[in-house]
Amino acid sequence: MSHANAPLTPTGRLRLARCVVDDGWPLRRAAERFNVSVTTAKRWAGRYRAEGPAGMVDRSSRPRSCPHRTPTRRERRVIGLRVSRRWGPARIAYLLGMNPATVHRVLTRYGCLRLAWTDPATGVPLRAQRRRVLRYEHAAPGDLVHVDIKKLGRIPDGGGHKVLGRAAGKRNRRHGEGYWYIHNAVDDHSRLAYSELLQDERKETAAAFWSRANAYFAGAGITVRRVLTDNGACYRSRDFARALAQHGVTHKRTRPYRPQTNGKVERFNRILLEEWA
């Protein structure tokens, strides 16, 4: 398809070629008449002689050969890893010693969908409406609240080694800086979040945090019915169980080594790292 500023459309090319071939116009006269170069007039006249009116359309710009294209055998390894292990371009590229952009082009060339657009267990493509159904979300606010703790190192004033360099960052470090513990609670339905920056992750601290978080949600008109946490020691304590029982909240815990179950608060932790910490 011709671009917007092209001096010749397929119809204009045909007129130019007929003036040269059928009517015997000199190339220079035809080029001046149609406001193009002599080289352009010669090209379209030559195509008209060889192919007739069918040669006036645009040809594909795809090269006839590509010597530097990834070998077919290497492409098959890329597709095999994608199907068998369900890896993304970065992990496949690291294993095969390739550029991630090259792996991404190979996957696109063979019509591989993004991992987010496929079922995690089977790899079957999901339609748009099906994806919305599979995104689990409780029907009402308070049906489930995700609770978790994110540990962050305390960076002294002036920055650490990532800003100052290894030697200067070590000199700037004070003894016993320790960590901050961000306690988070995220409502599954509304995504309303409550966070506190606390000194530790002990059972007393976690229980007190939940009491304040529950009061915050109650102030927003949300009655919490269930809480989902991991299997950390503070969440398995009697103090935390009593804090939940005072308001009739049911406690649920994730399967061991399955942080995906508490994925909403895990994603919230990542947002805090990227946008705040």
Written overview of the protein:
This protein is α/β, with parallel strands linked by helices and 277 residues long. Helix content is 44%, strand content 12%. It contains 12 helices and 5 strands. It has a 5-stranded mixed beta sheet with strand order 3-2-1-4-5. α1 (10-21) runs antiparallel to α2, α2 packs across α3 and α5 crosses α6 (100-109). The longest helix has 17 residues, at 203-219. The two termini are 50 Å apart. 20% of the residues are buried.
Layout of secondary structure:
Elements: H1 10-21, H2 27-34, H3 38-51, H4 72-85, H5 89-96, H6 100-109, H7 128-134, E1 145-153, H8 161-164, H9 166-172, E2 179-187, E3 193-198, H10 203-219, E4 226-229, H11 238-245, E5 250-253, H12 263-275
Parallel strand pairs: 1-4, 4-5
Antiparallel strand pairs: 1-2, 2-3
Helix pairs in contact: 1-2, 1-3, 2-3, 5-6, 10-11
> Overall 3D geometry?
elongated
Q: Unreliable runs, pLDDT <50, ≥5 residues?
A: 128-133
What is the oligomeric state here? single chain
Q: What's the helical proportion of residues?
A: 40-55%
Q: Rg from C-alpha positions?
A: 33 Å
Beta-strand level of the residues, as a percent range?
A: 5-15%
Helix/sheet category: alpha/beta
Number of helices: 12
Total beta-strand segments: 5
Provide the residue-averaged pLDDT: 86
Strand order of the largest sheet: 3-2-1-4-5
One letter per element, helices H and strands E, the order comes to HHHHHHHEHHEEHEHEH
The major pleated sheet works out as:
5 strands, mixed
- How many angstroms separate the termini? 50 Å
